[in-house]
Amino acid sequence: MSIRGKACIVGAYEHPTRKAEDKSVAQLHAEVALGALRDAGLTRADVDGYFCAGDAPGMGPLSMADYLGLNRLTHYDSTDVGGCSYLVHVAHAAEAIAMGKCKVALITLAGRPRSEGVATGTAPRPGDPRQPDVQFEYPFGPAIANMYAMCAQRHMYEYGTTSEQLAWIKVAASHHAQHNEHAMLRKVVTVEDVVNSPLVADPLHRLDCCVISDGGGALVVTSPEIARTLKRPLVSIRGAGEAIKHVDGGRIDLSYTGARYAGARAFEMAGVKPADMKYASIYDSFTITVLMQLEDLGFCEKGQGGKFVSDGNLISGVGRLPFNTDGGGLCNNHPANRGGITKVIEAVRQLRGEAHPAVQVKNCDLALAHGTGGSLGTRHGSATLVLERL
Amino acid sequence: MTDRIPPSPTPDPSTQRFWDAAREGKLLIGRNSKTGKTHYPPRPICPFDDEGEVEMVEASGRGTIYSFSIMRAKVPYAIAYVELEEGPRMMTNIIGADFAAIRIGQPVTLKFQPTEGDGYPVPMFTPA
């Protein structure tokens, strides 16, 4: 059974904060929950499905269900695959709705790594010693940045990709972020700015990395029948795919990501091709993340990502594939160090015609949102959604 | 030229033998008794095949750099995946090398390095 057309995203809300020193994580979850429900024209009393991931404090959904006062839950899911969890949640919510397990599903994400002073990308994290990989990896200092850097290094070796080509991705994001009043980095940057910024983990520079921000976001998913009773434009889930890629017993191949599988599954369900997409939200923890996912999703051939992203091809109104028109994780926001929900939110804005006028894609009726969670350098989840305005 | 002292790994009952061997300067990898396919990190159940027993065998210690990155930390270090002669790629550090001269494809050899607090030595690699 396919979930194509079985559910709609009717509420989408991004918290405006980027530094929440005076708020708790649970409070941020509650604020985005209400924001998304208000956007949908629904209330907490309507919610019978709840989805959250590892950023939500407490055991699975228990503490948040309690704190939010959700008393009618007939379905819940706390699948945690890092930053792409929320795209997985949208798909799982659509499945639950199609199966009649719930009618109105709420998905929340929030966190405050900036206020907590987390060195997200550069500090190796010890992890749980029972995690079987930790004793074979942690002694060598794996940090998020150097793991993605090894992917970039390998990509450059195999395909001749350059730092200048990667820089174009940040340049495009900055062109979009200048119009977003909430974005952390609104200054338009050049290729030279990026390649001249300090190296964090060769070959990635400081400006190849996403921001560290507080904040959050929420989504409301419901059936097409209920969606038609609401006043919001109809954004239908047309395709969804998820995948896990890992170290594979020592056969890790850093040249591609799980997007190869998640994307193919989503496009197959949707019955459309990458070239049909008017807009794409692409997970952008680093510039290399975007480049590899674009290849693996099929927007260009493997190894051609560098050429594809160059010369403004990702800039709305300029290039062939407008991406991350909110400025993305690279410039706008990366709440809780997890950029998945904001990817869906901006895709919804584009499909509704509610993106900033300077970056709104004309007649945007088909859009893609793609996320990665975990590390491309070791093990990660990938999730793709094809969304359609009805 | 590395000054970074890595933290010690914490063995578990299934990996104690691996880390005891490390104290003797031996790098163990897993090998399926039926298929002969090697894996890393070694584990009691083969990640590839349901059949066969996992044997822990000593790797030659020769390999090539599959990828790497220089972490620009206060004490910089070179993290890498090294592809062992036997097949598996393993996360490690490249030591005793000029960072600017490290290349993908470069031959390297095993060199165990001490860890914090007289912990278990960990397998690193140096240019061959």
UniProtKB/TrEMBL annotation, chain A:
<feature type="domain" description="Thiolase C-terminal">
    <location>
        <begin position="252"/>
        <end position="379"/>
    </location>
</feature>
<protein>
    <submittedName>
        <fullName>Acetyl-CoA acetyltransferase</fullName>
        <ecNumber>2.3.1.9</ecNumber>
    </submittedName>
</protein>
<dbReference type="Pfam" id="PF22691">
    <property type="entry name" value="Thiolase_C_1"/>
</dbReference>
<keyword id="KW-0012">Acyltransferase</keyword>
<dbReference type="InterPro" id="IPR055140">
    <property type="entry name" value="Thiolase_C_2"/>
</dbReference>
<dbReference type="InterPro" id="IPR016039">
    <property type="entry name" value="Thiolase-like"/>
</dbReference>
<keyword id="KW-0808">Transferase</keyword>
<dbReference type="GO" id="GO:0003985">
    <property type="term" value="F:acetyl-CoA C-acetyltransferase activity"/>
</dbReference>
<dbReference type="InterPro" id="IPR002155">
    <property type="entry name" value="Thiolase"/>
</dbReference>
Automatic annotation (TrEMBL), chain B:
<dbReference type="InterPro" id="IPR002878">
    <property type="entry name" value="ChsH2_C"/>
</dbReference>
<dbReference type="InterPro" id="IPR012340">
    <property type="entry name" value="NA-bd_OB-fold"/>
</dbReference>
<dbReference type="InterPro" id="IPR022002">
    <property type="entry name" value="ChsH2_Znr"/>
</dbReference>
<dbReference type="GO" id="GO:0003677">
    <property type="term" value="F:DNA binding"/>
</dbReference>
<feature type="domain" description="ChsH2 C-terminal OB-fold">
    <location>
        <begin position="57"/>
        <end position="113"/>
    </location>
</feature>
<dbReference type="Pfam" id="PF12172">
    <property type="entry name" value="zf-ChsH2"/>
</dbReference>
<protein>
    <submittedName>
        <fullName>DNA-binding protein</fullName>
    </submittedName>
</protein>
<dbReference type="Pfam" id="PF01796">
    <property type="entry name" value="OB_ChsH2_C"/>
</dbReference>
<dbReference type="InterPro" id="IPR052513">
    <property type="entry name" value="Thioester_dehydratase-like"/>
</dbReference>
<feature type="domain" description="ChsH2 rubredoxin-like zinc ribbon">
    <location>
        <begin position="19"/>
        <end position="54"/>
    </location>
</feature>
<keyword id="KW-0238">DNA-binding</keyword>
